Automatic annotation (TrEMBL):
SUPFAM superfamilies: HCP-like. PPR repeats lie at residues 1-28, 29-63, 64-98, 99-133, 135-169, 212-246, 281-310. The lineage of its organism: Eukaryota, Viridiplantae, Streptophyta, Embryophyta, Tracheophyta. InterPro entries: Mito_RNA-Proc/Resp, PPR_rpt, TPR-like_helical_dom_sf. PROSITE patterns: PPR. This is Pentatricopeptide repeat-containing protein. GO terms for molecular function: mRNA binding. Keywords: Repeat.
């Protein structure tokens, strides 16, 4: 019942029930405490969660791995790293081994807080303790954190290490690395990175991991920003041939790029392709009108404007 109240957001009622149980000379179980601690953390009442954790110990209820995972996750969300370290040390002193959920939670939070060095140290500790990292949470978080700091080589090295350990990357992990390569290509003018990103997309398929709309969109936008429109158009065709429907923003970005280099006919063909898949939004229409007027296609621009009015 306590668990049910917490899951429905009624933590205050769960606490009241806990007190009533104690008044009835019954001892609440560790499961009850864990449910409330987790509920308080999710409700961002971290101070109350910590107080209940201490109260639980004082009343002779010994915390378990779930208790620590919940309180640590709550502390991570607030960036309370000293407290996190304190609870981890306490956990070890009680001879409770942090499981992959606890460690993955900390690594993910550290990466989001730009503390990738500490995250990497903890990551290696996982292997030392024989804890197998979770692909989506642990590896992806760490690779994403390294990429956000511009540490492309480190991210690529970790990716290769992941495969070397027999752990297959998923579409999310691949997309993170493809995105990083694309950003480096157009922001640092390392255009060769676009070729590497494309090779990674092909490697992804060879490994039996099918790219999704996000994977293709990242690469298409990368080629667009690198001013390689032919490559972007080819990827769009490949994407559509696989039955994937591009986002409106993907079409719009390409149409804008084509108009800028005065490839009006190609932009119009792309516009027809878009109409078959989804309806253009206001931003798409603005791009189309600007492009048509800039390229002197006034009659076509007026027809489009009239269509918008309908």
């Amino acid at each position: 019942m306590v668990d049910g109240l917490c899951k429905t957001g009624n933590v205050h009622l769960a606490i009241k029930l806990l007190k009533d149980i104690e008044k009835g000379n019954c001892k609440p179980t560790i499961r009850m405490y864990n449910a409330i601690i987790d509920g308080l953390c999710k409700d961002k009442q971290i101070a109350k969660a910590q107080n209940l954790f201490k109260e639980m110990i004082c009343k002779g209820v010994v915390p378990n791995a779930i208790s620590y995972s919940s309180i640590i996750r709550g502390l991570c969300s607030f960036g309370m790293w000293k407290e996190v370290e304190s609870y981890v040390n306490e956990m070890v002193n009680r001879e409770i081994s942090p499981n992959f959920v606890t460690l993955s939670t900390i690594i993910d939070a550290l990466c989001k807080d730009w503390r990738t060095e500490k995250a990497q140290t903890l990551f290696e500790l996982m292997f030392t303790r024989g804890v197998q990292p979770d692909v989506l949470v642990t590896y992806s978080s760490l690779i994403d954190g390294l990429c956000n700091l511009g540490q492309w080589e480190e991210a690529t090295k970790l990716f290769s290490e992941m495969i070397g350990r027999g752990i297959s990357p998923n579409v999310h992990t691949f997309s993170i690395l493809i995105d990083a390569m694309c950003k480096e290509a157009w922001s640092q003018r390392h255009i060769s990175r676009m070729d590497e990103a494309t090779k990674l997309l092909h490697s992804m398929m060879v490994m039996g991991c099918e790219p999704n709309v996000i994977s293709y969109t990242i690469l298409i936008n990368g080629y667009f920003k690198a001013k390689k429109l032919d490559e972007a158009m080819q990827l769009l065709e490949d994407m559509c041939s696989k039955g994937l429907t591009p986002h409106t923003i993907t079409y719009t970005s390409l149409i804008l790029g084509l108009y800028k280099v005065r490839r009006v006919a190609t932009a119009q063909d792309l516009k027809k392709m878009q109409d078959c898949g989804q309806s253009p939004d206001a931003w798409t229409y603005k791009i189309l009108l600007d492009g048509l007027f800039t390229n002197g296609c006034y009659a076509e621009a007026m027809r489009l404007f009239e269509k918008m009015g309908k």
